[in-house]
Amino acid sequence: MNREFLSIVAKLSESSNILVVGHIMPDGDDISSVLSAKIGLERLGKNVLAGIDWRIPWYFYEFEEVNQILTYEQVKERGFRPEVVLIVDASSPDRVGQFQEFFDSTTVLLMDHHATNTLFGDHNWVDTKFGSTAQMVVRVNNELGVPYDEKLATLNLMGIATDTGFFRYSNADETVFSDATKLVSLGGKVHLVSRIFENKRIEQFKLLSTMVDHLRLELDDKIVYSYLSKEDYENNNCNEDDSGGFVGELRSLRGVELAIFLSEYDSGEVHISFRSKDWFDCSKLATMLGGGGHPRAAGCTIKGDLYVIVEEVIREAKNLFLTSLTSLNDSASK
Ligand code: AMP
Ligand code: MN
Ligand code: MN
Predict the structure, then answer these.
(1) Is 271 in the same domain as 157?
(2) Which residue minimizes the CA distance to atom 22 of ligand 1?
(3) Are residues 226 and 265 in the same domain?
(4) 217 partner at 20 to 30 Å CA-CA among 16, 22, 150, 288?
(5) Which CATH number fits the domain that encloses residue 190?
Protein backbone atom coordinates (compact mmCIF):
# COMPACT_ATOMS: atom_id res chain seq x y z
CA MET A 1 0.00 0.00 0.00
CA ASN A 2 0.96 3.62 -0.58
CA ARG A 3 3.37 5.04 2.05
CA GLU A 4 1.31 8.23 2.59
CA PHE A 5 -1.82 6.12 3.10
CA LEU A 6 -0.03 4.13 5.79
CA SER A 7 1.29 7.28 7.49
CA ILE A 8 -2.22 8.74 7.62
CA VAL A 9 -3.64 5.51 9.06
CA ALA A 10 -0.83 5.41 11.66
CA LYS A 11 -1.37 9.05 12.68
CA LEU A 12 -5.13 8.58 13.01
CA SER A 13 -4.59 5.40 14.96
CA GLU A 14 -2.31 7.03 17.54
CA SER A 15 -4.39 10.24 17.94
CA SER A 16 -7.26 10.70 20.39
CA ASN A 17 -8.56 14.13 19.36
CA ILE A 18 -9.20 14.53 15.66
CA LEU A 19 -10.75 17.28 13.57
CA VAL A 20 -12.12 16.20 10.18
CA VAL A 21 -12.52 19.06 7.71
CA GLY A 22 -14.13 19.32 4.28
CA HIS A 23 -14.11 22.02 1.62
CA ILE A 24 -16.07 25.21 1.08
CA MET A 25 -19.07 24.93 -1.29
CA PRO A 26 -19.38 21.30 -0.16
CA ASP A 27 -20.67 18.63 -2.51
CA GLY A 28 -21.90 15.09 -1.85
CA ASP A 29 -18.44 13.53 -1.92
CA ASP A 30 -17.12 16.05 0.56
CA ILE A 31 -20.02 15.70 3.02
CA SER A 32 -19.93 11.92 2.69
CA SER A 33 -16.17 11.76 3.25
CA VAL A 34 -16.26 14.08 6.28
CA LEU A 35 -19.06 12.12 7.94
CA SER A 36 -17.82 8.64 7.05
CA ALA A 37 -14.37 9.46 8.44
CA LYS A 38 -15.83 11.13 11.55
CA ILE A 39 -18.27 8.35 12.37
CA GLY A 40 -15.66 5.69 11.59
CA LEU A 41 -13.10 7.24 13.96
CA GLU A 42 -15.74 7.67 16.66
CA ARG A 43 -16.52 3.98 16.43
CA LEU A 44 -12.91 3.39 17.41
CA GLY A 45 -13.48 5.42 20.59
CA LYS A 46 -11.86 8.65 19.43
CA ASN A 47 -12.97 12.18 20.21
CA VAL A 48 -13.79 13.63 16.79
CA LEU A 49 -15.29 16.88 15.53
CA ALA A 50 -16.26 17.52 11.92
CA GLY A 51 -16.23 20.95 10.32
CA ILE A 52 -17.01 22.68 7.05
CA ASP A 53 -16.63 26.45 6.72
CA TRP A 54 -19.71 26.90 4.52
CA ARG A 55 -23.45 26.47 4.63
CA ILE A 56 -24.47 22.93 3.73
CA PRO A 57 -27.19 22.82 1.03
CA TRP A 58 -30.54 21.97 2.62
CA TYR A 59 -31.15 18.78 0.62
CA PHE A 60 -28.21 17.01 2.31
CA TYR A 61 -30.12 17.20 5.61
CA GLU A 62 -32.10 14.17 4.36
CA PHE A 63 -29.24 12.50 6.24
CA GLU A 64 -29.66 13.49 9.88
CA GLU A 65 -25.92 12.93 10.46
CA VAL A 66 -25.28 16.14 8.49
CA ASN A 67 -26.29 17.97 11.70
CA GLN A 68 -23.00 16.73 13.19
CA ILE A 69 -20.99 18.96 10.85
CA LEU A 70 -20.01 22.13 12.68
CA THR A 71 -19.16 25.58 11.41
CA TYR A 72 -15.71 27.03 12.05
CA GLU A 73 -17.19 29.26 14.78
CA GLN A 74 -18.79 26.27 16.54
CA VAL A 75 -15.50 24.35 16.52
CA LYS A 76 -13.72 27.40 18.00
CA GLU A 77 -16.41 27.87 20.67
CA ARG A 78 -15.77 24.35 21.91
CA GLY A 79 -12.10 25.19 22.43
CA PHE A 80 -11.19 21.97 20.65
CA ARG A 81 -7.43 21.21 20.50
CA PRO A 82 -7.00 18.42 17.95
CA GLU A 83 -3.71 16.57 17.57
CA VAL A 84 -4.38 16.03 13.90
CA VAL A 85 -6.61 17.60 11.27
CA LEU A 86 -7.82 15.24 8.57
CA ILE A 87 -8.74 17.13 5.41
CA VAL A 88 -10.81 15.40 2.77
CA ASP A 89 -11.59 16.26 -0.87
CA ALA A 90 -9.87 19.68 -0.78
CA SER A 91 -7.31 20.53 -3.44
CA SER A 92 -5.76 23.68 -1.96
CA PRO A 93 -5.60 25.38 1.47
CA ASP A 94 -8.08 28.12 0.53
CA ARG A 95 -10.67 25.39 -0.05
CA VAL A 96 -10.89 24.70 3.70
CA GLY A 97 -11.65 28.35 4.48
CA GLN A 98 -10.96 29.52 8.04
CA PHE A 99 -9.96 26.01 9.19
CA GLN A 100 -6.52 26.84 7.77
CA GLU A 101 -5.95 28.47 11.14
CA PHE A 102 -5.41 24.99 12.68
CA PHE A 103 -2.54 24.17 10.32
CA ASP A 104 0.22 25.71 12.48
CA SER A 105 -0.69 23.90 15.69
CA THR A 106 -1.53 20.43 14.34
CA THR A 107 -0.39 17.72 11.96
CA VAL A 108 -2.33 18.04 8.73
CA LEU A 109 -3.39 14.81 7.02
CA LEU A 110 -4.75 15.24 3.51
CA MET A 111 -6.77 12.78 1.46
CA ASP A 112 -7.92 13.83 -1.97
CA HIS A 113 -8.39 12.79 -5.60
CA HIS A 114 -7.91 16.09 -7.49
CA ALA A 115 -5.09 16.33 -10.06
CA THR A 116 -4.86 20.03 -9.15
CA ASN A 117 -4.03 19.25 -5.49
CA THR A 118 -1.20 21.45 -4.14
CA LEU A 119 -0.08 18.86 -1.52
CA PHE A 120 -0.46 21.29 1.38
CA GLY A 121 -0.65 18.74 4.21
CA ASP A 122 2.11 17.20 6.33
CA HIS A 123 1.03 13.85 4.90
CA ASN A 124 -0.63 13.91 1.49
CA TRP A 125 -2.42 10.87 0.16
CA VAL A 126 -3.55 12.22 -3.21
CA ASP A 127 -4.57 9.74 -5.86
CA THR A 128 -6.36 10.84 -9.02
CA LYS A 129 -7.24 7.24 -9.89
CA PHE A 130 -10.14 7.41 -7.43
CA GLY A 131 -13.47 8.63 -8.77
CA SER A 132 -14.29 9.98 -5.29
CA THR A 133 -12.58 10.76 -1.99
CA ALA A 134 -15.27 8.61 -0.34
CA GLN A 135 -13.48 5.53 -1.73
CA MET A 136 -10.28 6.61 0.01
CA VAL A 137 -12.24 6.85 3.27
CA VAL A 138 -13.45 3.27 2.70
CA ARG A 139 -9.81 2.16 2.60
CA VAL A 140 -8.76 4.11 5.69
CA ASN A 141 -11.77 2.83 7.65
CA ASN A 142 -11.05 -0.73 6.57
CA GLU A 143 -7.41 -0.50 7.56
CA LEU A 144 -8.42 0.90 10.96
CA GLY A 145 -10.99 -1.89 11.43
CA VAL A 146 -14.07 0.37 11.56
CA PRO A 147 -17.31 -1.63 11.81
CA TYR A 148 -19.90 -0.71 9.17
CA ASP A 149 -23.68 -0.77 9.44
CA GLU A 150 -26.43 0.41 7.07
CA LYS A 151 -26.11 4.07 8.14
CA LEU A 152 -22.36 4.33 7.65
CA ALA A 153 -22.42 2.28 4.45
CA THR A 154 -25.14 4.52 2.96
CA LEU A 155 -23.35 7.72 3.97
CA ASN A 156 -20.08 6.45 2.50
CA LEU A 157 -21.87 5.34 -0.68
CA MET A 158 -23.27 8.86 -1.15
CA GLY A 159 -19.81 10.23 -2.04
CA ILE A 160 -19.13 7.56 -4.63
CA ALA A 161 -22.58 7.98 -6.18
CA THR A 162 -22.55 11.78 -6.33
CA ASP A 163 -18.99 12.26 -7.65
CA THR A 164 -19.64 9.77 -10.46
CA GLY A 165 -23.05 11.26 -11.39
CA PHE A 166 -24.70 8.14 -10.02
CA PHE A 167 -22.28 5.83 -11.84
CA ARG A 168 -22.68 7.57 -15.21
CA TYR A 169 -19.47 9.62 -15.67
CA SER A 170 -16.19 8.47 -17.19
CA ASN A 171 -14.69 8.18 -13.68
CA ALA A 172 -17.14 5.33 -12.93
CA ASP A 173 -14.50 2.62 -13.31
CA GLU A 174 -14.24 -0.92 -12.01
CA THR A 175 -13.03 0.22 -8.57
CA VAL A 176 -16.02 2.52 -8.23
CA PHE A 177 -18.37 -0.39 -8.88
CA SER A 178 -16.51 -2.84 -6.66
CA ASP A 179 -16.35 -0.31 -3.78
CA ALA A 180 -20.04 0.47 -4.23
CA THR A 181 -20.87 -3.24 -4.31
CA LYS A 182 -18.97 -3.73 -1.09
CA LEU A 183 -20.85 -0.89 0.62
CA VAL A 184 -24.18 -2.21 -0.67
CA SER A 185 -23.31 -5.63 0.78
CA LEU A 186 -22.68 -3.87 4.12
CA GLY A 187 -26.18 -2.36 3.99
CA GLY A 188 -25.68 0.76 1.82
CA LYS A 189 -28.88 1.89 0.08
CA VAL A 190 -28.60 3.68 -3.29
CA HIS A 191 -32.28 4.69 -3.27
CA LEU A 192 -31.74 6.58 0.02
CA VAL A 193 -28.82 8.42 -1.54
CA SER A 194 -30.80 9.39 -4.64
CA ARG A 195 -33.52 10.82 -2.41
CA ILE A 196 -31.31 13.88 -1.80
CA PHE A 197 -31.86 14.87 -5.42
CA GLU A 198 -35.41 13.60 -5.81
CA ASN A 199 -36.77 15.98 -3.25
CA LYS A 200 -37.05 19.18 -5.30
CA ARG A 201 -39.13 22.23 -4.45
CA ILE A 202 -41.40 23.53 -7.22
CA GLU A 203 -39.42 26.79 -7.02
CA GLN A 204 -36.36 24.91 -8.25
CA PHE A 205 -38.21 23.88 -11.41
CA LYS A 206 -39.08 27.54 -12.00
CA LEU A 207 -35.46 28.50 -11.38
CA LEU A 208 -34.43 25.90 -13.95
CA SER A 209 -36.81 27.50 -16.41
CA THR A 210 -35.14 30.90 -15.82
CA MET A 211 -31.77 29.29 -16.46
CA VAL A 212 -33.09 27.80 -19.72
CA ASP A 213 -34.30 31.29 -20.74
CA HIS A 214 -30.70 32.54 -20.44
CA LEU A 215 -29.18 29.61 -22.32
CA ARG A 216 -26.80 30.39 -25.18
CA LEU A 217 -24.88 28.19 -27.61
CA GLU A 218 -21.43 28.89 -29.03
CA LEU A 219 -18.99 27.34 -31.53
CA ASP A 220 -21.42 25.25 -33.62
CA ASP A 221 -23.40 24.35 -30.50
CA LYS A 222 -20.39 22.59 -28.95
CA ILE A 223 -20.40 24.98 -25.99
CA VAL A 224 -23.51 25.74 -23.99
CA TYR A 225 -23.68 28.27 -21.18
CA SER A 226 -26.17 29.94 -18.93
CA TYR A 227 -26.26 31.98 -15.73
CA LEU A 228 -28.43 32.99 -12.81
CA SER A 229 -28.15 36.40 -11.17
CA LYS A 230 -28.87 37.21 -7.54
CA GLU A 231 -32.18 38.70 -8.71
CA ASP A 232 -33.06 35.49 -10.58
CA TYR A 233 -32.63 33.53 -7.35
CA GLU A 234 -34.60 36.07 -5.33
CA ASN A 235 -37.44 36.26 -7.88
CA ASN A 236 -37.84 32.49 -7.68
CA ASN A 237 -37.62 32.39 -3.88
CA CYS A 238 -34.41 30.40 -4.16
CA ASN A 239 -30.74 30.71 -3.28
CA GLU A 240 -27.56 29.37 -4.92
CA ASP A 241 -27.95 25.96 -3.26
CA ASP A 242 -31.11 25.39 -5.30
CA SER A 243 -29.28 25.23 -8.63
CA GLY A 244 -27.14 22.20 -7.75
CA GLY A 245 -27.16 19.92 -10.80
CA PHE A 246 -28.14 22.62 -13.32
CA VAL A 247 -24.77 22.43 -15.08
CA GLY A 248 -25.42 18.72 -15.61
CA GLU A 249 -28.70 19.60 -17.35
CA LEU A 250 -26.76 21.89 -19.69
CA ARG A 251 -24.21 19.20 -20.46
CA SER A 252 -26.99 16.75 -21.29
CA LEU A 253 -27.84 18.76 -24.41
CA ARG A 254 -27.19 16.78 -27.61
CA GLY A 255 -23.89 17.56 -29.35
CA VAL A 256 -22.51 19.69 -26.51
CA GLU A 257 -18.93 19.07 -25.39
CA LEU A 258 -18.54 21.86 -22.82
CA ALA A 259 -21.22 23.20 -20.47
CA ILE A 260 -20.71 26.33 -18.36
CA PHE A 261 -22.98 27.58 -15.61
CA LEU A 262 -22.38 30.88 -13.82
CA SER A 263 -24.12 31.52 -10.55
CA GLU A 264 -24.12 34.84 -8.70
CA TYR A 265 -23.92 34.20 -4.97
CA ASP A 266 -25.48 36.28 -2.19
CA SER A 267 -21.95 37.40 -1.31
CA GLY A 268 -21.59 39.00 -4.76
CA GLU A 269 -19.07 36.39 -5.89
CA VAL A 270 -19.75 34.44 -9.06
CA HIS A 271 -19.18 30.69 -8.99
CA ILE A 272 -18.57 29.05 -12.34
CA SER A 273 -19.04 25.34 -12.99
CA PHE A 274 -17.53 23.60 -16.02
CA ARG A 275 -18.51 20.15 -17.26
CA SER A 276 -17.37 18.32 -20.40
CA LYS A 277 -18.38 15.10 -22.10
CA ASP A 278 -15.50 13.46 -23.95
CA TRP A 279 -12.26 15.37 -24.34
CA PHE A 280 -12.23 19.01 -23.18
CA ASP A 281 -10.06 19.57 -20.09
CA CYS A 282 -12.24 21.62 -17.73
CA SER A 283 -9.59 21.68 -14.99
CA LYS A 284 -7.21 23.50 -17.37
CA LEU A 285 -9.77 26.24 -17.98
CA ALA A 286 -10.76 26.45 -14.30
CA THR A 287 -7.11 26.65 -13.23
CA MET A 288 -6.48 29.49 -15.70
CA LEU A 289 -9.33 31.34 -13.98
CA GLY A 290 -8.02 30.71 -10.46
CA GLY A 291 -9.92 27.51 -9.62
CA GLY A 292 -9.38 23.80 -10.15
CA GLY A 293 -11.04 20.41 -10.36
CA HIS A 294 -11.09 17.36 -12.60
CA PRO A 295 -10.80 16.96 -16.41
CA ARG A 296 -14.58 16.55 -16.82
CA ALA A 297 -15.78 18.66 -13.85
CA ALA A 298 -14.13 21.80 -12.55
CA GLY A 299 -14.97 25.18 -11.09
CA CYS A 300 -13.75 28.60 -10.01
CA THR A 301 -15.02 31.63 -8.16
CA ILE A 302 -14.54 35.23 -9.34
CA LYS A 303 -15.54 38.49 -7.69
CA GLY A 304 -17.09 41.22 -9.82
CA ASP A 305 -19.98 42.11 -12.06
CA LEU A 306 -21.84 39.03 -13.27
CA TYR A 307 -22.31 40.19 -16.85
CA VAL A 308 -18.67 41.24 -17.26
CA ILE A 309 -17.60 37.86 -15.85
CA VAL A 310 -19.94 36.01 -18.24
CA GLU A 311 -18.29 37.79 -21.19
CA GLU A 312 -14.76 37.14 -19.95
CA VAL A 313 -15.29 33.50 -19.05
CA ILE A 314 -17.00 32.66 -22.34
CA ARG A 315 -14.20 34.39 -24.28
CA GLU A 316 -11.53 32.39 -22.41
CA ALA A 317 -13.53 29.19 -22.81
CA LYS A 318 -13.91 29.67 -26.57
CA ASN A 319 -10.20 30.42 -26.99
CA LEU A 320 -9.08 27.37 -25.05
CA PHE A 321 -11.72 25.22 -26.74
CA LEU A 322 -10.46 26.19 -30.20
CA THR A 323 -6.77 25.66 -29.39
CA SER A 324 -7.56 22.33 -27.70
CA LEU A 325 -9.65 21.28 -30.70
CA THR A 326 -6.77 22.11 -33.06
CA SER A 327 -4.29 20.00 -31.09
CA LEU A 328 -6.85 17.21 -30.80
CA ASN A 329 -7.32 17.19 -34.58
CA ASP A 330 -3.54 17.41 -35.15
CA SER A 331 -2.83 14.40 -32.98
CA ALA A 332 -5.71 12.46 -34.60
CA SER A 333 -4.30 13.04 -38.09
CA LYS A 334 -0.74 11.95 -37.13
P1 AMP B 1 -18.52 22.53 -8.99
O2 AMP B 1 -18.68 23.00 -10.38
O3 AMP B 1 -18.52 23.61 -7.97
O4 AMP B 1 -19.46 21.41 -8.68
O5 AMP B 1 -17.06 21.90 -8.89
C6 AMP B 1 -16.63 20.89 -9.76
C7 AMP B 1 -15.27 20.42 -9.34
O8 AMP B 1 -14.32 21.48 -9.36
C9 AMP B 1 -15.19 19.82 -7.95
O10 AMP B 1 -14.29 18.74 -8.00
C11 AMP B 1 -14.65 20.93 -7.10
O12 AMP B 1 -13.96 20.41 -6.00
C13 AMP B 1 -13.75 21.68 -8.07
N14 AMP B 1 -13.78 23.12 -7.79
C15 AMP B 1 -14.85 23.93 -7.84
N16 AMP B 1 -14.54 25.19 -7.54
C17 AMP B 1 -13.22 25.20 -7.27
C18 AMP B 1 -12.28 26.22 -6.86
N19 AMP B 1 -12.65 27.51 -6.67
N20 AMP B 1 -11.00 25.85 -6.67
C21 AMP B 1 -10.63 24.57 -6.85
N22 AMP B 1 -11.45 23.57 -7.24
C23 AMP B 1 -12.73 23.88 -7.44
MN1 MN C 1 -15.79 17.92 -3.72
MN1 MN D 1 -14.54 14.60 -4.81
Answers:
(1) no
(2) 292
(3) yes
(4) 288
(5) 3.90.1640.10
Q: Do both 121 and 243 map to the same domain?
A: no
Structural domain ending residue among the three candidates 152, 169, 197: 197
Residue-wise pLDDT for 217-252, tens only, equals 999 999 999 999 999 999 999 999 999 999 999 999
Same domain, 145 and 44: yes
22 lines ligand 1 (CB under 6 A): no
pLDDT in tens, 61-112: 999 999 999 999 999 999 999 999 999 999 999 999 999 999 999 999 999 9
- Coil vs helix vs strand at 257: coil
Q: Is the pTM of this model over 0.90?
A: yes
Mapped to the 3 state alphabet, what secondary structure does 140-156 carry? HHHHHCCCCCHHHHHHH
Same domain, 225 and 210: yes
Residues around ligand 3, an ion, CB closer than 5 A: 29, 89, 133, 163
Q: Given the CA of residue 30, which atom of ligand 1 is nearest to it? A: 12
